[in-house]
Amino acid sequence: MAKVNHEQIEQAVRLILEAVGEDPNREGLLDTPKRVAKMYAEVFSGLNEDPKEHFQTVFGEDHEELVLVKDIPFFSMCEHHLVPFFGKAHVAYIPKGGKVTGLSKLARAVEAVAKRPQLQERITSTVADSIIETLDPHGVMVVVEAEHMCMTMRGVKKPGASTVTTAVRGVLKDDQAARSEILTLIKQS
């Protein structure tokens, strides 16, 4: 992937400020283009990262029961409006063949996928598919809950509205009891 072009972002931010009627040379705005460029480099750093890379490290462990990491906080940018959405991801999988990954790798994959211009639905399915394709588990379930600023601060203006998306793969697709167990565990504090 291409490296972030800070200078181009700075020029664009200056143009936006002018277009909304601001003076980009005003004291409070002088460094804003530079700050926004730096922020965008950080917020979109996932564009240069493949979430599957986080699952290359596996451990041999005779465990073929549920593994769930819940309440993984994330921040992303809506690709339609370039405003943030944020929430929690819950990632569950049932290992197969003694192949387990580090728990932090699940959180790192969520972060890599979220740090792109994004849709919540795509975060959910990309994380699930990355686990399926690299770990080949019996099953995967990813649940993402988020609040979208494009619904909170503009448009319909409904702060507090939460969007929930799920992606279910493998044996969990047809195992209603296992899915219910995961959802119950997610709801527990």
UniProtKB/TrEMBL annotation:
<keyword id="KW-0378">Hydrolase</keyword>
<comment type="subunit">
    <text>Homopolymer.</text>
</comment>
<dbReference type="GO" id="GO:0003934">
    <property type="term" value="F:GTP cyclohydrolase I activity"/>
</dbReference>
<dbReference type="InterPro" id="IPR001474">
    <property type="entry name" value="GTP_CycHdrlase_I"/>
</dbReference>
<protein>
    <recommendedName>
        <fullName>GTP cyclohydrolase 1</fullName>
        <ecNumber>3.5.4.16</ecNumber>
    </recommendedName>
</protein>
<comment type="similarity">
    <text>Belongs to the GTP cyclohydrolase I family.</text>
</comment>
<keyword id="KW-0479">Metal-binding</keyword>
<feature type="binding site">
    <location>
        <position position="81"/>
    </location>
    <ligand>
        <name>Zn(2+)</name>
    </ligand>
</feature>
<feature type="binding site">
    <location>
        <position position="150"/>
    </location>
    <ligand>
        <name>Zn(2+)</name>
    </ligand>
</feature>
<comment type="pathway">
    <text>Cofactor biosynthesis; 7,8-dihydroneopterin triphosphate biosynthesis; 7,8-dihydroneopterin triphosphate from GTP: step 1/1.</text>
</comment>
<keyword id="KW-0342">GTP-binding</keyword>
<feature type="domain" description="GTP cyclohydrolase I">
    <location>
        <begin position="9"/>
        <end position="186"/>
    </location>
</feature>
<dbReference type="InterPro" id="IPR018234">
    <property type="entry name" value="GTP_CycHdrlase_I_CS"/>
</dbReference>
<dbReference type="InterPro" id="IPR043134">
    <property type="entry name" value="GTP-CH-I_N"/>
</dbReference>
<feature type="binding site">
    <location>
        <position position="78"/>
    </location>
    <ligand>
        <name>Zn(2+)</name>
    </ligand>
</feature>
<keyword id="KW-0547">Nucleotide-binding</keyword>
<dbReference type="Pfam" id="PF01227">
    <property type="entry name" value="GTP_cyclohydroI"/>
</dbReference>
<dbReference type="InterPro" id="IPR020602">
    <property type="entry name" value="GTP_CycHdrlase_I_dom"/>
</dbReference>
<dbReference type="InterPro" id="IPR043133">
    <property type="entry name" value="GTP-CH-I_C/QueF"/>
</dbReference>
<keyword id="KW-0554">One-carbon metabolism</keyword>
<keyword id="KW-0862">Zinc</keyword>
